[in-house]
Amino acid sequence: MTELIAVTGATGRIGRRVVRQLVEAGAAVRALGRDQGKLAALPTGDTRTASYDVGAAMRSALDGAHTLFMVSAHEAPGRVRTHAAAVDAALAAGVGRVVYLSYLNAAPHATFTYARDHWHTEQHIRSTGVPFTFLRDSTYQSDLAAMTSPQGVLRGPGGDGRVGAVTHDDIADSVTAVLLGEGHDGATYDMTGPEALSFAEIAAALSEASGREVVYEPETRDQAYASRALYHAPDWEVEGWVTSYEAVAVGEMDDVSDDVRTLTGHPPQAFADFLAANPQCYRHLVRAT
To answer: How much is the CA Rg of the chain, to the nearest whole Å?
Structure first.
């Protein structure tokens, strides 16, 4: 009997890719999400509506699943508790393996505040004794383009630091390889692109791809908080935005790993190649010319 793989966040940028690849590989897949309408568009007939923080619904949705692929919940002050509740519900449902999408250099005192959440989630998964695999992804290459303003400015307190950003496709390929493969229990893989770029180099790549000048403007911490005040976001969210740049500045994001190639058999995509293949990611820059 084929073991059932449950995929959470199945309508998201990673989840839907993983569902598609698993179905194409002939695996038994159950897609979990919060929007039944979006779930219905996925290429699997086995879908369940569930939220991490509703234990009974999660247990019911995971009944019969052997493996859980778990993407992180949306950022929030109680995200670690939400993750822990989801893991506990999975184990109560009989899940025997957890594959968790974590974050590069997750640590209890990581500069990037959200990376701390991932470390605490990893620790909870470890504490349960369930077989696990952690895939720690770097910044997404598409987010680097999205962080650039329509005026062609990439602004933040990143200093001269570098980031080995990765694509969603490479993450999904790696996750699928782990879900379908063997020998990954207890492993932690670092998911990065093939190179670590400075923000100045990222701006130059965006300039080349979009055909208009894109510049990087370094900020101090105070300037970063001030420039983001106009969004009127909660303090914890602004802190996450600012510290994501500061993590780059202090060297916590400059790792370059070969784990994507090891898992998938192909090299991770370079940023310039990603931009050439995905012009929609910087369309806001082209429109602003």
So the answer is: 19
Return d(Cα 152, Cα 154) in angstroms, integer. Answer: 7
CA–CA separation, 110 vs 112, rounded Å? 5
Q: What is the pLDDT of residues 18-59, one digit of tens each?
A: 999 999 999 999 999 999 999 999 999 999 999 998 889 999
| Cβ–Cβ < 8 Å for 13, 168 | yes
- Rounded to the nearest angstrom, the gap between the alpha carbon of residue 148 and the centroid of all alpha carbons in its chain is 19
Query: What is the full DSSP assignment across 127-190?
Result: HHT--EEEEEE--BHHHHHHTS-TTSEEEES-TT-EE--B-HHHHHHHHHHHHH-SS-TTEEEE
Handedness of CA 142, 123, 57, 53 (dihedral sign): negative
Q: Tokens for 253?
A: 């994001």
Burial of 137 (0-12, 13-18, 19+ CB in 10 A): buried
List 160's β-bridge partners, or say none.
Answer: none
Alpha helices in the chain (DSSP H): 15-24, 36-39, 55-61, 79-92, 113-128, 141-146, 168-180, 199-210, 221-227, 235-249, 259-264, 271-277, 283-287
How far lies 44's CA from each of 100, 110, 266, in Å? 21, 38, 27
Nearest to 157 by CA among 254, 253, 245, 248: 245
Q: Residue 285's closest CA among 214, 235, 226?
A: 214
Q: What's this model's pTM, rounded to 2 decimal places?
A: 0.96
